[in-house]
From TrEMBL, chain A:
Organism: Microvirga makkahensis
Protein name as catalogued: Aliphatic sulfonate ABC transporter substrate-binding protein
Position of the signal peptide: 1-29
Principal location class: periplasm
Classification via Gene3D superfamilies: Periplasmic binding protein-like II
Family membership noted in the UniProt record: Belongs to the bacterial solute-binding protein SsuA/TauA family.
Keyword Transport tagged: yes
Membrane-traversing stretches: none
A GO molecular-function annotation: ATPase-coupled transmembrane transporter activity
Database matches in InterPro entries: ABC_SsuA_sub-bd (IPR010067), Solute-binding_3/MltF_N (IPR001638), SsuA/THI5 (IPR015168)
UniProt key word Transmembrane helix: no
Domain Solute-binding protein family 3/N-terminal: 49-263
UniProt keyword list: Signal, Transport
From TrEMBL, chain B:
Organism for this UniProt entry: Microvirga makkahensis
GO biological process: alkanesulfonate transmembrane transport
Name of this chain's protein: ABC transporter permease subunit
Protein family per UniProt: Belongs to the binding-protein-dependent transport system permease family.
Main location: membrane
PROSITE patterns registered for this protein in UniProt: ABC_TM1 (PS50928)
Name of one Pfam family that matches: BPD_transp_1
Role according to the record: Probably part of an ABC transporter complex. Probably responsible for the translocation of the substrate across the membrane.
Keywords: Cell membrane, Membrane, Transmembrane, Transmembrane helix, Transport
CC annotations in GO: plasma membrane
Residue ranges occupied by any ABC transmembrane type-1 domain in the UniProt entry: 75-255
This protein's record includes keyword Manganese: no
Gene3D superfamilies per record: MetI-like
């Protein structure tokens, strides 16, 4: 028997496979109510699946054309979602909770894409060995970020007052390495890639990471886990397009897990990180697949409980006025 | 003397009390009406509070922050930064501006530098100021200084150039040295215009302090607005804006007080 096929056989089998898959693609494309979807993203890891999904054509094969819009901060992204300028947004949960607390019903939380307990934390000079050693020191952190919440929490755990015992300085995450290197601060709380950059420095040590956050110990819940949100108007009008988007999103996150090298190479345009460093960042992320989403996002699941506890924490630390009932924003029915 | 030959008395005649109060009353009523419409529109749900909170909500936020003791800290921090940055800018701009306005050679030397500095917004100085001054208060003063200095200098140069050249000539003919001409003729002659320019610059210095407080600040009205924005507390954002306006008006009154003292003939 000949092990190889003739040219005619190859062409015939290719034609059969095209004909076999075309109706599926056409059906998916024809099913969605709208083909145009806008997404608010940034170079942060929570947005990797959408970037990969665009590059690999996962959205396209479901009939969706995704318009990537870049936003520097979660609050700017969520502001655009609330104003109806974008349809989907990945965001840190603190911005989502703040928007809920402000009374906006403009969005649903539909997924918790990943967890990353080891790429965010406090980096300090070698002489600072415990959180208590931060007393009287200067600590740079981006206010209203997950790192800020981490700082408030660990200081509270150590019995330190963030307004009196430590001088907290509001710094953009990108400026934390330069401020630390210039000795303008004694410690910084930051996240990847700044966290990875500083971790590799000689005169810097990781004082702690997200695993020291009190809710992590209780719910495996970081200080500001990412959530995927969708405009309520968009999801209600376009349930099939919403489901198709999420389907493509999870295909992309599975792809990142299975093909990290190719994913790292595709992400370089977005993050500008060297391939090795990009691959290291990917190693630190645990992607939550579509099968687990229903379980963790369910009413009694760990994620809504943790999110509610985080809202209560923010109220206790006077970051938001009142804790929203987060259940009212979570919509798992749209999950594929 | 008949009324026919009486000198015109219009300028010294006192207006009736109701007429003097008429315009302030109109302003008060229009402002009150605006607040009522605004409150009504948010109360009826025509405007979502996330996009524009009601005046009563803003007032509640002000009370809450005053009770927590944070409100005054924000006002004082920003006012101090504006005062220091603006004073340094004025102290450098006034003598330098008089020299540049007086001497064409000096102007030719400094013109290219000034043309380069003039269009730069204060925000563009943030990265360099962080490298030069770190993250302390001097960095914030420097942002206010850089935002206020070049325009102030231009005001002073223009004010100096507008002094009547006949006065300068007369002083020179009477044997005054250049230094005396500057101090005795040009400075008093240009001072009213310089002070008018600085009054405008004081307002601009307040816009600079917002940029200055974007990075490495933990209090100040700019910080308050930006932090409120991050948490979607629109009432805090609007309160910060209102406080900036009120503080600018208050500093303007203080400025006018000093202006009357320095230029009594203008009052």
């Amino acid at each position: 028997m000949r092990a190889t096929m003739s040219r005619r056989q190859i062409l015939a089998s290719a034609l059969i496979s095209v004909l076999a898959t075309a109706p599926l693609g056409a059906t998916l494309a024809a099913e969605v109510e709208t083909s145009k979807v806008s997404y608010g993203g940034s170079s942060w890891l929570g947005h990797y699946p959408v970037w990969i999904g665009i590059k690999k054509g996962f959205f396209e094969k479901r009939g969706l054309s995704v318009d990537w819009k870049l936003f520097g901060t979660s609050s700017a992204r969520m502001g655009a979602l609330a104003a109806g300028d974008i349809d989907f947004a990945g965001t840190g949960s603190i911005s989502a909770l703040a928007l809920m607390a402000a009374g906006s019903k403009a969005f649903y939380v539909v997924a918790a894409p990943e967890s990353y307990a080891t790429v965010e934390g406090i980096i300090a000079t070698p002489e600072i060995k415990t959180v208590k050693d931060l007393k009287g020191k200067k600590l740079g952190v981006t206010f209203a970020s997950s790192s800020h919440v981490l700082v408030l929490d660990v200081l509270e755990q150590a019995g330190l007052n963030p307004n009196k015992d430590v001088t907290l300085i509001n710094l953009p995450a990108g400026d934390t390495p330069s401020a630390f290197k210039a000795k303008q601060v004694d410690a910084v709380a930051t996240w990847t890639p700044a966290f990875n950059v500083l971790r590799a420095q000689e005169n810097a040590r990781v004082l702690l990471d997200d695993r020291e956050f009190s809710l992590y110990k209780q719910y495996q819940f970081g200080p500001g886990p990412d959530v995927l949100t969708v405009s309520r108007t968009f999801a209600d009008k376009n349930p099939k397009a919403t489901a198709a988007f999420l389907d493509a999103f999870f295909e992309a996150s599975e792809f990142i897990t299975k093909e990290p090298a190719e994913a790292a190479s595709l992400l370089q345009d977005l993050t500008q990180l060297p391939p090795e460093e990009q691959a290291n960042v990917l190693k630190d992320i645990e992607w939550t697949g579509r099968a687990e989403q229903q379980k963790i996002m369910a009413r009694e699941g760990d994620f809504p409980k943790g999110l509610q506890a985080l809202a209560d924490f923010l109220v206790r630390h006077k970051q938001i006025d009142k804790a929203p009932k987060v259940d009212s924003w979570i919509k798992t029915q749209v999950l594929p | 003397m008949t009324a026919k030959y009486a000198p015109p008395m219009v300028s010294v005649e006192r207006q009736p009390r109701w007429r003097r109060l008429k315009n302030p009353l109109i302003s008060l009523v229009s402002f009150g009406a605006l607040l009522l419409i605004w409150e009504g529109a948010t109360g009826l749900g025509l405007i979502e509070p996330l996009f524009l909170p009601a005046p009563s909500q803003i007032a509640q936020r002000a009370i809450q922050m005053a009770e927590q003791g944070t409100l005054l800290g924000h006002i004082v921090a920003s006012t101090w930064r504006v005062t220091v940055g603006f004073l340094i800018a004025s102290l450098v701009a006034i003598p330098l501006g008089i020299i540049l306005g007086f001497s064409q050679t000096s102007r030719a030397i400094f013109d290219p530098i000034l043309s380069f500095l003039r269009p730069l917004p204060s925000m563009s100085w943030i990265p360099l100021s962080l490298l030069w001054f770190g993250i302390g208060e001097s960095q914030k003063y420097s942002i206010v200084f850089m935002g206020a200095f070049a325009p102030s200098l231009l005001y002073v140069i223009e004010a100096t150039k507008s002094v009547d050249p006949l006065l300068v000539k007369a002083a020179q003919n009477l044997g005054a040295r250049p230094r005396d001409v500057m101090i005795e003729v040009i400075l008093p002659g240009s001072l009213p215009q310089i002070l008018s320019g600085l009054k405008v610059m004081l307002g601009i210095a307040w816009t600079c302090v917002i940029s200055a407080e974007l990075v490495a600040a933990r209090e100040g009205l700019g910080f308050m607005i930006m932090n409120g924005k991050e948490y979607f507390q629109t009432d805090t954002v609007v309160l910060g804006m209102v406080l900036i306006s009120v503080t600018v008006m208050a500093t303007d009154l203080v400025f006018r007080f000093f202006e009357r003292r320095i230029l009594p003939w203008k009052a």
